[in-house]
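Feature request, filed as a ticket because there's no other form

It would be nice if the structure record came with a short human-readable summary line next to the tokens. Right now we just get the raw output. Example of a typical job, pasted below so the devs can see what we mean:
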Amino acid sequence: MRRQIDYARLIPGIDVAEISEEDEAALRTIASTRQIDRIVQRLLMVTLVVSAILFIAGAIWQVVAHLPPVHHVTQIADLTHTNGPDLLFSLGLIVLIVSPILRLIGVAVGLAQQGDWAFVGVTALVLAVMLASLWIG
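Raw output as currently delivered:
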């Protein structure tokens, strides 16, 4: 069953009665692309908010507990020896690092749903390079 699209909402001012089949196919692609964009936008917004909450909570904890500030990023990134507010800073940093990876995964899934396999391959290659750079350090 075909999904109904509100073309008037998608393109304000469009005369829905005059849409040809070719135009409808193009509009479906636009609608699908906009849906992917909205999902990726929400994902990035959620990761940004979560990261900010973790950073702010860590900063408040650090001030309230009268702890010395962290002076280097490697101190934050070492989760094996991290506790207290530094753990919150570390988790906030990890969420920020993971957000572009999640974005790429979301885009690849959306492109695969559209059947755009060339761009799925390019996105997968970029994702592989990003993951390799995280793995290698």
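Something like this underneath would help us a lot:
The two ends are 48 Å apart (CA to CA).
Residues 41-136 form one domain.
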